[in-house]
Amino acid sequence: MKRRTFDLILTLGGGMLVVVLVVAGVLLMWGSSFANSNVHDQLAKQEIFFPPAAAFAHAQAGTEITPTMKPYLLPYAGQQLLTGTQAQAYATHFIAIHLSEMPYGGVYSKISTASRAHPTTKKLAALVTTSFQGTTLRGLLLEAYAFSVFGTIAFWAGIAAFVLGFLMLILTGLGLWHLKRTPEDTEFPARHRQPAA
Fold first, then answer.
1. CA distance linking residue 40 with residue 147, whole number of Å
2. Please, how many CA atoms are within 13 Å of residue 6, restricted to the half-sphere of its CB?
3. Terminal Cα-to-Cα distance of the chain (whole angstroms)
4. What is the pTM of this model?
5. Is 57 part of any domain?
6. Is 106 contained in some domain?
7. Neighbours of 191 (CB within 10 A)
8. Residue 103 in 3-state DSSP?
9. 189 domain residue, yes or no
10. How far is 114 from 111, CA to CA, in rounded Å?
11. What is the pLDDT along the chain (197 residues), one digit of tens a residue?
12. What is the spatial distance between Cα 182 and Cα 66, in angstroms, rounded to a whole number?
Protein backbone atom coordinates (compact mmCIF):
# COMPACT_ATOMS: atom_id res chain seq x y z
CA MET A 1 0.00 0.00 0.00
CA LYS A 2 1.20 3.49 -0.78
CA ARG A 3 2.12 5.57 2.26
CA ARG A 4 -0.02 8.47 1.00
CA THR A 5 -3.06 6.16 0.79
CA PHE A 6 -2.46 4.98 4.34
CA ASP A 7 -2.06 8.58 5.56
CA LEU A 8 -5.24 9.61 3.74
CA ILE A 9 -7.23 6.77 5.39
CA LEU A 10 -5.97 7.77 8.85
CA THR A 11 -6.64 11.45 8.21
CA LEU A 12 -10.19 10.82 6.98
CA GLY A 13 -10.83 8.55 9.97
CA GLY A 14 -9.51 11.27 12.28
CA GLY A 15 -11.76 13.84 10.61
CA MET A 16 -14.81 11.62 11.09
CA LEU A 17 -13.85 11.09 14.72
CA VAL A 18 -13.65 14.87 15.21
CA VAL A 19 -17.21 15.21 13.88
CA VAL A 20 -18.46 12.37 16.11
CA LEU A 21 -16.81 13.87 19.22
CA VAL A 22 -18.18 17.35 18.52
CA VAL A 23 -21.71 15.98 17.96
CA ALA A 24 -21.40 13.89 21.15
CA GLY A 25 -20.21 16.97 23.05
CA VAL A 26 -23.14 19.05 21.82
CA LEU A 27 -25.65 16.32 22.72
CA LEU A 28 -24.12 15.81 26.16
CA MET A 29 -24.20 19.55 26.87
CA TRP A 30 -27.84 19.67 25.75
CA GLY A 31 -28.62 16.69 28.02
CA SER A 32 -26.89 18.39 30.93
CA SER A 33 -28.79 21.62 30.37
CA PHE A 34 -32.10 19.78 29.98
CA ALA A 35 -31.62 17.73 33.18
CA ASN A 36 -30.55 20.67 35.32
CA SER A 37 -33.21 23.10 34.06
CA ASN A 38 -35.91 20.45 34.45
CA VAL A 39 -34.82 19.69 38.02
CA HIS A 40 -34.79 23.42 38.82
CA ASP A 41 -38.19 24.09 37.26
CA GLN A 42 -39.91 21.12 38.90
CA LEU A 43 -38.45 21.86 42.33
CA ALA A 44 -39.37 25.57 42.04
CA LYS A 45 -43.03 24.60 41.56
CA GLN A 46 -43.01 22.80 44.92
CA GLU A 47 -42.13 26.01 46.82
CA ILE A 48 -40.15 24.18 49.50
CA PHE A 49 -37.96 26.37 51.71
CA PHE A 50 -35.28 25.42 54.20
CA PRO A 51 -35.92 26.53 57.78
CA PRO A 52 -34.61 30.05 58.50
CA ALA A 53 -31.20 30.59 60.10
CA ALA A 54 -32.85 31.54 63.41
CA ALA A 55 -34.27 28.01 63.72
CA PHE A 56 -30.77 26.53 63.71
CA ALA A 57 -29.70 28.62 66.71
CA HIS A 58 -31.92 26.54 69.00
CA ALA A 59 -31.31 23.07 67.54
CA GLN A 60 -32.38 20.35 69.97
CA ALA A 61 -33.19 16.67 69.65
CA GLY A 62 -36.92 16.10 69.11
CA THR A 63 -37.57 19.56 67.65
CA GLU A 64 -37.86 20.74 64.06
CA ILE A 65 -34.08 21.22 63.85
CA THR A 66 -31.83 18.67 65.54
CA PRO A 67 -28.10 19.20 66.10
CA THR A 68 -27.27 16.51 63.51
CA MET A 69 -29.03 18.53 60.78
CA LYS A 70 -27.00 21.71 61.23
CA PRO A 71 -23.89 20.84 59.18
CA TYR A 72 -26.02 19.77 56.19
CA LEU A 73 -28.89 22.27 56.25
CA LEU A 74 -27.45 25.46 57.74
CA PRO A 75 -25.66 26.43 54.48
CA TYR A 76 -29.10 26.55 52.82
CA ALA A 77 -30.96 28.26 55.69
CA GLY A 78 -33.94 30.25 54.43
CA GLN A 79 -33.28 29.37 50.76
CA GLN A 80 -35.81 27.89 48.38
CA LEU A 81 -35.03 24.31 47.40
CA LEU A 82 -34.04 24.55 43.69
CA THR A 83 -31.09 22.24 43.03
CA GLY A 84 -30.42 18.52 43.18
CA THR A 85 -27.83 19.00 45.92
CA GLN A 86 -30.34 20.91 48.03
CA ALA A 87 -32.95 18.22 47.38
CA GLN A 88 -30.56 15.52 48.58
CA ALA A 89 -29.72 17.48 51.74
CA TYR A 90 -33.39 18.14 52.54
CA ALA A 91 -34.47 14.55 51.85
CA THR A 92 -31.61 12.88 53.72
CA HIS A 93 -30.96 15.26 56.60
CA PHE A 94 -34.41 16.71 57.27
CA ILE A 95 -37.24 14.45 56.11
CA ALA A 96 -35.44 11.15 56.81
CA ILE A 97 -34.51 12.25 60.33
CA HIS A 98 -38.10 13.27 61.13
CA LEU A 99 -39.41 10.01 59.67
CA SER A 100 -36.94 8.00 61.77
CA GLU A 101 -38.24 9.71 64.92
CA MET A 102 -41.79 8.47 64.27
CA PRO A 103 -43.14 5.19 65.70
CA TYR A 104 -41.95 2.15 63.74
CA GLY A 105 -39.02 4.27 62.52
CA GLY A 106 -41.37 6.04 60.14
CA VAL A 107 -41.28 3.05 57.78
CA TYR A 108 -44.52 3.17 55.79
CA SER A 109 -44.92 -0.59 55.40
CA LYS A 110 -44.59 -1.18 59.16
CA ILE A 111 -47.02 1.62 60.08
CA SER A 112 -49.49 0.50 57.42
CA THR A 113 -49.35 -3.10 58.66
CA ALA A 114 -49.98 -1.94 62.24
CA SER A 115 -52.85 0.27 61.07
CA ARG A 116 -54.50 -2.59 59.20
CA ALA A 117 -54.17 -4.77 62.32
CA HIS A 118 -55.91 -2.03 64.36
CA PRO A 119 -58.25 -0.30 61.85
CA THR A 120 -60.08 1.77 64.45
CA THR A 121 -56.98 3.47 65.85
CA LYS A 122 -57.03 7.03 64.54
CA LYS A 123 -53.48 7.73 65.67
CA LEU A 124 -52.14 4.91 63.46
CA ALA A 125 -54.26 6.11 60.52
CA ALA A 126 -52.75 9.60 60.89
CA LEU A 127 -49.25 8.10 61.08
CA VAL A 128 -49.90 6.16 57.86
CA THR A 129 -50.77 9.41 56.07
CA THR A 130 -47.77 11.29 57.49
CA SER A 131 -45.35 8.47 56.72
CA PHE A 132 -46.70 8.06 53.20
CA GLN A 133 -46.44 11.77 52.44
CA GLY A 134 -42.97 12.09 53.96
CA THR A 135 -41.65 8.97 52.25
CA THR A 136 -43.12 10.04 48.91
CA LEU A 137 -41.67 13.55 49.09
CA ARG A 138 -38.31 12.14 50.15
CA GLY A 139 -38.31 9.73 47.20
CA LEU A 140 -39.22 12.47 44.72
CA LEU A 141 -36.50 14.76 46.05
CA LEU A 142 -33.91 12.00 45.82
CA GLU A 143 -35.02 11.32 42.24
CA ALA A 144 -34.48 15.01 41.44
CA TYR A 145 -31.02 14.69 42.97
CA ALA A 146 -30.28 11.63 40.81
CA PHE A 147 -31.28 13.51 37.65
CA SER A 148 -29.06 16.42 38.65
CA VAL A 149 -26.15 13.98 39.03
CA PHE A 150 -26.86 12.67 35.51
CA GLY A 151 -26.79 16.29 34.33
CA THR A 152 -23.42 16.87 35.99
CA ILE A 153 -21.98 13.69 34.49
CA ALA A 154 -23.26 14.70 31.05
CA PHE A 155 -21.67 18.14 31.45
CA TRP A 156 -18.22 16.76 32.24
CA ALA A 157 -18.53 14.08 29.56
CA GLY A 158 -19.40 16.86 27.08
CA ILE A 159 -16.29 18.82 28.13
CA ALA A 160 -14.20 15.66 27.68
CA ALA A 161 -15.70 15.08 24.22
CA PHE A 162 -14.86 18.64 23.14
CA VAL A 163 -11.28 18.35 24.48
CA LEU A 164 -10.77 15.01 22.73
CA GLY A 165 -12.33 16.44 19.56
CA PHE A 166 -9.90 19.38 19.66
CA LEU A 167 -6.92 17.04 20.17
CA MET A 168 -8.14 14.85 17.33
CA LEU A 169 -8.49 17.95 15.13
CA ILE A 170 -4.83 18.79 15.79
CA LEU A 171 -3.80 15.21 14.98
CA THR A 172 -5.90 15.30 11.80
CA GLY A 173 -4.22 18.56 10.80
CA LEU A 174 -0.81 16.99 11.39
CA GLY A 175 -1.96 14.02 9.30
CA LEU A 176 -2.83 16.36 6.40
CA TRP A 177 0.50 18.12 6.78
CA HIS A 178 2.31 14.75 6.70
CA LEU A 179 0.23 13.61 3.71
CA LYS A 180 1.38 16.60 1.65
CA ARG A 181 5.04 16.00 2.53
CA THR A 182 5.07 12.26 1.73
CA PRO A 183 6.43 11.32 -1.72
CA GLU A 184 3.91 9.47 -3.90
CA ASP A 185 6.08 6.41 -4.45
CA THR A 186 6.71 5.67 -0.74
CA GLU A 187 5.39 2.28 0.36
CA PHE A 188 3.86 1.37 3.70
CA PRO A 189 5.24 -0.50 5.44
CA ALA A 190 8.63 0.48 4.06
CA ARG A 191 10.30 -2.33 2.12
CA HIS A 192 13.95 -2.87 2.76
CA ARG A 193 16.04 -3.86 -0.20
CA GLN A 194 18.15 -6.93 0.22
CA PRO A 195 21.84 -6.29 -0.47
CA ALA A 196 23.01 -7.77 -3.75
CA ALA A 197 24.98 -11.02 -3.32
1. 11
2. 12
3. 28
4. 0.79
5. yes
6. yes
7. 7
8. helix
9. no
10. 5
11. 676 777 778 888 888 999 999 999 999 999 999 999 999 999 999 999 999 999 888 888 888 899 999 999 999 999 999 999 999 999 999 999 999 999 999 999 999 999 999 988 899 999 999 999 999 999 999 999 999 999 999 999 999 999 999 999 998 888 888 777 777 776 666 665 566 55
12. 74
Domain that residue 87 falls in: 3-181
Rounded-to-integer distance, Cα 139 and Cα 97, Å: 14
The residues pairing with 49 across neighbouring beta strands, listed in sequence order, are 80
Burial of 128 (0-12, 13-18, 19+ CB in 10 A): middle
Domains in the chain, number? 1
Is residue 70 exposed (0-12), middle (13-18) or buried (19+ Cβ within 10 Å)? middle
Contacts of 113 (CB under 8 A, 6+ apart): none
Q: Determine how many CB atoms are found less than 10 A away from the CB of residue 131.
A: 23
Domain annotation covers residue 191: no
User: Helix H segments across the chain?
Assistant: 3-46, 53-56, 70-73, 84-90, 96-100, 108-117, 122-181
Distance separating alpha carbons of residues 150 and 35, to the nearest angstrom: 7
Query: Which residue type is seen at 153?
Result: I
